[in-house]
Structure formats: structure tokens, C-alpha cells
Amino acid sequence: MSGSSASSIVELSRSRSRYHDQDALLRGFASLPASTAKEVAVEVLDWRYEQYANAPKRAHDLHLLGYLERLDGRECRHTGKVAHTYRVTEAGVVHLRRMGVDVSMPAAKQPALNDAAATDPAACISALRGLLGPS
Q1: Which of 5-9, 37-41, 122-126 has the lowest mean pLDDT?
Q2: pLDDT band at residue 109, thresholds of 50, 70 and 90?
Q3: Which DSSP string corresponds to 5-68?
């Protein structure tokens, strides 16, 4: 079984290159969020050949570890095929910080009060209730 996928995975695990590629890909997603694995592989990491081909597998591994969150699928800029896009999770940021990579999570987008709420007190109260959620 020397040519099987299982033996290849074992060999990658022994050589630690699998984990090196995962960490590099995670750093790439931190700098290019909401991208496909192959976009990060080419645009950020300048990967070629085997590394490029394995990028979606390593992204899936990172997703299973909880370091990446899957977003919507869209057409990849490099393959032209529909592919998952990802963003780094809080657990992924913690992992990157443990590796010594300085990463900050993007600030959560805060809903803004609309113009009517700024001039009408009743609309302002309604908008604030909407921001606070159900009571």
C-alpha cells in the first residue's frame, strides 16, 4: 500500500510538512479573509504544484480543527470553479498568536441608527430596542 492516500497522509504527518502547510494557510487566511484556499495559496503564499493542489485539503483540516469557518461558496478567481470561502475563527486567532503571529480579529460590524431614528424619538427607541434584541 505504498501509493495509497493513507500512507501519504502518514508520511506527511511524520515529516510535519502537513502541519507546516496548515499553519501557513491559516496565516494566509488571516491576511486575505473570505477567500478560497487556492486564492490564498497563489496570492499570499505563492504555492505551486503539490502545495497548491493540497490547499483545499489543508483548509478542510483547519475547518475540522475549528480554526476556519466556512462561508458561502463562490467562483474562485484561479480555478473558475465554485469553492468554499473561509474566515479565521477566534480559535484560529489564538493558535496564530501561540505561534507568534500578531493577528487581530476584524471588528464586528455594528448596526447604525438610521436618519429617521436620529430625528424622531419614537423611531430612536424602536431602533435601540432592535439593537438590544428580544427582551
Answers
A1: 5-9
A2: very low
A3: HHHHHHHHHHHTHHHHHHHHHHHHHHHS-SB-HHHHHHHTT---HHHHHHHHHHHHHHHHHTSE
Contact (CB, 8 A) for 77 and 39: yes
Topology adopted by domain 5-104: Arc Repressor Mutant, subunit A (1.10.10)
Domain limits, the chain: 5-104, 106-135
pLDDT of residue 113: 47
Beta-ladder partners of 75: 82
CA distances 12 to 46, 49, 76, 83, 98, Å, are: 20, 16, 27, 25, 23
